[in-house]
Amino acid sequence: MDAPRRSGRLTLKAPLTVSAAPVPGTATTNNRPDKRKRDKDDDISDSPESTTEDFKQNRDSLKVLQKKSKPVQYLIPDVEKKETTFRGRLGEYDVILSVAVHLQQVTLVLRLDSIKKNGIEWVKGLGKKNTEDLLVMIQWNEDNNIRFLRVSSEMFPFASHEIYGYSLEYCAQSLARVGSLANKYGHRLTVHPGQYTQLGSPKPEVVQSAVRELVYHCEMLDRMGVGVDGVMVVHGGGKYEDKSATLARIKKTINQILPLNVRNRLVLENDEMCYSAEDLLPLCEELDVPFIFDYHHHNLNPSSIPISAIIQRANAIFMRRGIKPKQHLSEPRPGAITLMERRAHANRCENLPPELPDDMDLMIEAKDKEQAVFHLYRMYNLHPVDYASLRPPEENETKETKGRKSNKRARTQAGKLSIEDE
Ligand SMILES: [Zn+2]
């Protein structure tokens, strides 16, 4: 059946049934893979046995699935209607690239062995494919009113590696095409290098590795021709038993080690364990490095100053730098009580924060990614949604997750320092 489309404000009396093919890479733009299927496949891909053979098999099975796929129907429940004056963009984070979903699983488990076995050119080929898939993703996002995207750090496997790292020049044309499509549509592209990007580590080799990681992300954004809004978000990192000494080292790294183009894209974000907003704001103000306020992290690791004051100070830095302000939103999973449980992100967000300024880019760091964005679109009537793109929420969302993906990856991916964090 044809999926109904919403125009203007439509109150739904009953759950909708949506038809869509559940397989990635099929011809129509709405056929983005089912999020839960992706998670399931991710688990499979974390098996250390994944090899080039798997890669080929995945590709073959993808072709078979494309031929055999039949539309399936999803029941889309209605959402609670809420009011807001917010008119900014909502962002989708760390998307596993749409048609690359099978390929990307392979990149997740790439280890140094696979470079030795298959050669660096094979690895670089994955990066090229990911870049081409990003074009498809941006078009899909445009068709679905999502104009703010965090590009995966896994685009170019091992690009920042101390020994095997490589320049992205071989992909210059594809990256430029991605950037010009994003610029044409006015999409914001940002990145969030992983938790091992420790600018304040007492160990010089750790700082060097963090700098390489930032240089790689910056090269990707620079080659895309992304403007100043293309920021690179990092956390304060570890405290190393002395927060103020670590903050001093972060300052030194930013001031003395980071190349200018890298520094210009750098922004710092409060985290839920070590550095609250009030820990980072003075440093950000002193260095004119923008500060990203994360509501979820703030709730777990609060500051003594009110949220409104934090946002005002953060926005002042963004304004001075001519960069569009940006924040992060996520919620704890239902029933979460302990700190560890509360750290895990819920599949979707149920509320926009009352303190949220009207004109702000808000990255939605929820497990359901684009579906979490659509959920807020529908609740707050922010944008029309194409019902063919919707997937139902998981029925029994628990307070536990199967563990942070970053930890799983850290275990299986010893050779790669780019581990995603939220
Ligand atoms: Zn965040």
Secondary structure elements and their pairing?
Elements: E1 16-20, H1 35-45, H2 52-68, E2 72-76, E3 90-92, H3 101-108, H4 112-118, H5 120-143, E4 148-150, H6 172-185, E5 188-190, H7 204-224, E6 232-235, H8 243-257, H9 260-265, E7 266-269, H10 277-287, E8 291-294, H11 295-300, H12 307-321, E9 326-329, H13 339-343, E10 361-364, H14 370-380, H15 405-412
Parallel strand pairs: 3-10, 4-5, 6-7, 7-8, 8-9, 9-10
Antiparallel strand pairs: 1-2
Helix pairs in contact: 1-3, 4-5, 5-6, 6-7, 10-12
The structure holds zinc ion.
Zinc ion is lined by residues 269, 294, 328, 365, 422.
Cα(first) to Cα(last) distance is: 38 Å
Taking pLDDT < 50 over at least 5 consecutive residues as the criterion, the unreliable ranges are 1-17, 20-56, 97-108, 403-422
Order of helices and strands: EHHEEHHHEHEHEHHEHEHHEHEHH
CATH topology: TIM Barrel
Q: Characterize the largest beta sheet: strand count, sense, and whether it forms a barrel.
A: 6 strands, parallel
- What's the CATH class, please? Alpha Beta
Query: Can you count the beta strands?
Result: 10
